[in-house]
């Protein structure tokens, strides 16, 4: 298959290869910058307040916080589904808050998203759902089959390609959503509770996929409640949201607890 | 890109919206409107053609009336007028109407008395002028005949039919207006249908949008699907209207009326009719594109 040469997403991926994510260092430039970002839905009080942080290109980040703390809201700002009420957001070095609308698609194509509610297209097969980002990006049809098939195998759904999303279990749908988010080898992967519906084994397997992507240079941002999961990625950093504010007001990030599970 | 690959890509793109109709009852509404539009257009074009044919037919014709109560004097005057007319260069034909034929024609209105000779019926001479400058020729002829006798009148036929021609052409314009209104209504229906389709596929659109699909990419999906729906409706309405026109045409011919048979469509009119469903599809696609682009413009 020409896929591995052209898009070596999973090439060399092996399971359980935790601890390989690189800690961000000074060599890496900021790919995401939030400065005093506030978000208010309608006339309610601010859902996010004074959020400032910066993510290094090639880093692996976890975002945690209680339910309703604003994780999804923060990620929405990150994947350009929402404009902040105030503050500055820079992606890939450009201020996206003031960016003209017609330039946004170009930015969105560089970001892969696993939605908390999956958002699979119900009338499309699993295969076509996964192929969607490639088709949106205008990839030629002949080049689509190899990466999609490989992705399907990777999330363990090799034989379900023609199934409709509604006929899959919650965990299977989640895996389709993940496959769809990573297939375009985005520069930033944003995943909102990507392992909420899968068992521990599958969670680890999916995490390995994220790590493989991370090794290839993708910056990973994962919102999760799953503490043990976070400990499996050595070098990953954690941000904690507390009622719409980053719990560390200096905006500095800290390492999660030492890995407890050996690979 | 190879042909099959391009087709596969197109097929995959088209699948982004579910199979089947996206626009609800829109195709049926378009079918009805197309039916009415084609009928109005056909009526308008037919009337236009009839007015034109009538004009061409009558342009050079006129009738000379000799209004003289005394039958013998009338005959004499009539003969001399005919002689004068035959000498005029731009009068192509001079046909005195036989008194008997005239009596036959007015009998339905006046009864048997018409033939008795007691009624002062004018003598008539049908003439035909050479083509061109009809008004000037009629004026000159009128002066010439006035010199012969004040009892002679010249009536160009176009003048008789002017009110009818006016009516027919007004009806023609009305039909044109109806076609325009139908086009407007079709556009409005498509806008509503596109809005509804857009709303009911909101989830898919959001996902495509967040994947970096451009507004034009998304609008194209709807444009194509609504275009297909409009094609279905337009073709249906057009076909039924065509059947009606053909059947109606056969009926018109069967009446044997000269006036009604003048309503026949030249091929240019058929071309105009055939352009209506095509125009309808283009209009639908444009309206759908515009509507979806506008809705998308409200998203971030
Ligand atoms: N579209 C919206 N309109 C109004 N309020 C919203 C909207 N989305 C989220 N909120 C509110 O913002 C707050 C944060 O929601 P958010 O979904 O970001 O939390 P979360 O941290 O992702 O929670 P969870 O862990 O349950 O997914 C909640 O109080 C929620 O009610
Ligand atoms: Mg959430």
From TrEMBL, chain B:
Protein name: Cell division protein
Signal peptide residue numbers: none
GO CC terms of this entry: cell division site; plasma membrane
UniProtKB keywords: Cell cycle, Cell division, Cell membrane, Membrane, Transmembrane, Transmembrane helix
Main localisation: membrane
Regions crossing the membrane: 28-51, 170-194, 230-250, 270-292
Organism for this UniProt entry: Sphingobium chungbukense
Membrane topology according to the record: Multi-pass membrane protein
InterPro entries assigned: ABC3_permease_C (IPR003838), FtsX (IPR004513)
Source lineage: Bacteria, Pseudomonadati, Pseudomonadota, Alphaproteobacteria, Sphingomonadales
Compartment(s) where it occurs, according to its Swiss-Prot or TrEMBL record: Cell membrane
Any GO BP annotation: cell division
One of the Pfam families matching this protein, by short name: FtsX
């Amino acid at each position: 298959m020409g896929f591995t040469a052209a898009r070596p997403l999973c090439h060399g991926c092996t399971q359980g290869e935790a601890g390989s994510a690189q800690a961000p260092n000074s060599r890496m430039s900021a790919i995401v910058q939030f400065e005093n970002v506030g978000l208010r839905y309608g006339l309610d009080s601010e859902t996010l307040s004074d959020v400032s942080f910066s993510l290094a290109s090639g880093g692996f980040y976890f975002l945690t916080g209680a339910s309703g703390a604003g994780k999804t809201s923060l990620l929405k700002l990150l994947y350009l589904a929402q404009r902040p009420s105030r503050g500055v957001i820079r992606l890939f070095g450009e201020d996206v808050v003031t960016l003209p609308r017609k330039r946004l698609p170009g930015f969105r194509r560089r970001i892969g998203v696993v939605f908390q509610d999956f958002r699979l297209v119900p009338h499309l097969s699993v295969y076509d759902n996964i192929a969607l980002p490639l088709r949106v990006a205008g990839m030629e049809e002949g080049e689509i089959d190899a990466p999609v098939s490989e992705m399907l195998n990777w999330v363990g759904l090799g034989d379900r390609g023609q199934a409709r999303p509604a006929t899959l279990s919650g965990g299977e749908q989640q895996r389709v959503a993940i496959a769809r988010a990573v297939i375009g080898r985005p520069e930033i992967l944003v995943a909102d509770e990507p392992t909420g519906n899968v068992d521990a084994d599958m969670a680890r397997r999916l995490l390995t996929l994220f790590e493989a992507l991370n090794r290839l240079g993708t910056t990973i941002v994962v919102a999760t409640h799953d503490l043990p999961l976070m400990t499996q990625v050595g070098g990953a950093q954690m941000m904690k949201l507390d009622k719409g504010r980053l719990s560390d007001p200096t905006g500095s990030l800290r390492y999660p607890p030492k890995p407890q599970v050996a690979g | 890109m190879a042909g099959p690959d391009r087709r596969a890509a197109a097929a995959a793109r088209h699948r982004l919206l579910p199979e089947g109709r996206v626009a609800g009852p829109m195709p049926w509404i378009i079918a009805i409107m197309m039916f009415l539009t084609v009928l109005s257009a056909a009526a308008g074009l037919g009337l236009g053609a009839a007015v034109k044919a009538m004009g061409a037919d009558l342009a050079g014709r006129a009738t000379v009336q000799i209004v003289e109560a005394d039958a013998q004097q009338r005959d004499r005057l009539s003969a001399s007028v005919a002689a004068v007319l035959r000498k005029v260069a731009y009068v192509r034909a001079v046909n005195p109407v036989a008194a008997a034929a005239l009596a036959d024609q007015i009998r339905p209105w006046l009864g048997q008395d018409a033939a008795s000779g007691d009624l002062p019926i004018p003598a008539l001479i049908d003439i035909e002028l050479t083509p061109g400058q009809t008004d000037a020729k009629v004026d000159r002829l009128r002066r010439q005949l006035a010199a012969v006798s004040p009892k002679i009148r010249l009536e160009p036929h176009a003048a008789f039919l002017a009110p009818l021609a006016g009516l027919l052409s007004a009806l023609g314009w009305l039909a044109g207006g109806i076609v325009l209104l139908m086009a407007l209504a079709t556009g409005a229906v498509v806008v509503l249908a596109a809005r509804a389709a857009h709303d009911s596929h909101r989830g898919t659109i959001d996902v495509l949008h967040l994947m970096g699909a451009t507004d034009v990419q998304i609008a194209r999906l709807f444009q194509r699907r609504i275009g297909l729906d409009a094609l279905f409706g337009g073709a249906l309405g057009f076909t039924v209207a065509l059947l009606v026109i053909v059947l109606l045409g056969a009926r018109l011919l069967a009446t044997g009326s000269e006036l009604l048979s003048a309503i026949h469509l030249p091929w240019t009119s058929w071309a105009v009719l055939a352009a209506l469903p095509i125009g309808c599809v283009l209009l639908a696609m444009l309206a759908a594109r515009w509507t979806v682009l506008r809705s998308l413009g409200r998203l971030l």
